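Data card: per-record layout.
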Amino acid sequence: MGKLTLKRRAFVLATPFLASGIARAADAWPTKPVKYINVFPPGGPTDTLSRIVCNQLSELTGQQFIVDNKAGSGGNIGTDAIAKSAPDGYTIGLYTIASQAIAPTLYAKLQFDVEKDFTAVAMMWAVPNMLMVRLDLPVKTVPELIKLCADNPGKYSFASSGSGTSPHLSGEIFKQLAKVNILHVPYRGSAPAYQDMLAGQVDMMFDNIPGPLGLMRSGKVRGLGVTSATRHPAAMDLPRMSEFLPGFEITSWGGICGPAGLPPAMVEKCAALTKQALDSAPVKAAFEQQGATAIWMNPADTAAYRARDEKRLAPVIKASGAKVD
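The structure for this 325-residue chain is written out next.
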């Protein structure tokens, strides 16, 4: 065997020290504030749930987990920012059904690769979408809404938190299964969509249940149904959409991810802290109030869940005819 070059020998000698240094950094993480990119704007369901978890992570670690909202393009702008951040554990963000499982099929072109550009860390929650309508729309049930839209093709509109989001896909599934023609009006997040619906600018909307639930409880909108396989514990009087439109089922989810190349030990620590946060009494109470279900998964299971959902939703998206250039 030939002699090692000086550069190669130096690398071999340094490798154990580099490894131990990375391990120490992971053990100490976080030693400074962590930026959490929420890919949707303030005021919507993902923002509320993200802040609940980040506040608890701050309590657990003594370091601030700061929510940075980077909205636009159905979550793709913020997701691209996560992909392009340094893999040092100090920029993480929302791992969401919209940009990670729906966008690869819906969008003709993306600036990121969902399989190569991210490190899955943990799953955090699952929430169904709720169908709500403005109070002055003359319907009180899903069948009545279907008839109204069928009798007036092209007259009514549905809002969404953005093209490629699960609320958008819910609306497309509704159009397909109910065989109605309604106009999609995408917004840069849920909050501005709510404002226009309350002002009568749009007629109906699907959204992650935490937002509509609050609006329904305060008497500002009329809830008609949920997109989950079972009735939701926080709104048991609302029927499942599949009771009227068989096969209508979609559940939104959110987790934590970082850019590709995050050190495995750091990923495992962040995942463990996330589980601790979700198991805490404050987060459990806040999630229950919001109608969200805490669902923790380890990094490998989180990545596998994303891949399965992308594969499951692809034919649904293609059948709906929805496409974003």
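Known properties of this structure: The domain at 32-127+251-320 is CATH 3.40.190.150 (D-Maltodextrin-Binding Protein; domain 2). The beta strands are 34-38, 65-69, 91-96, 118-134, 157-160, 183-186, 204-208, 221-226, 251-259, 293-297.

See the next section for split statistics.
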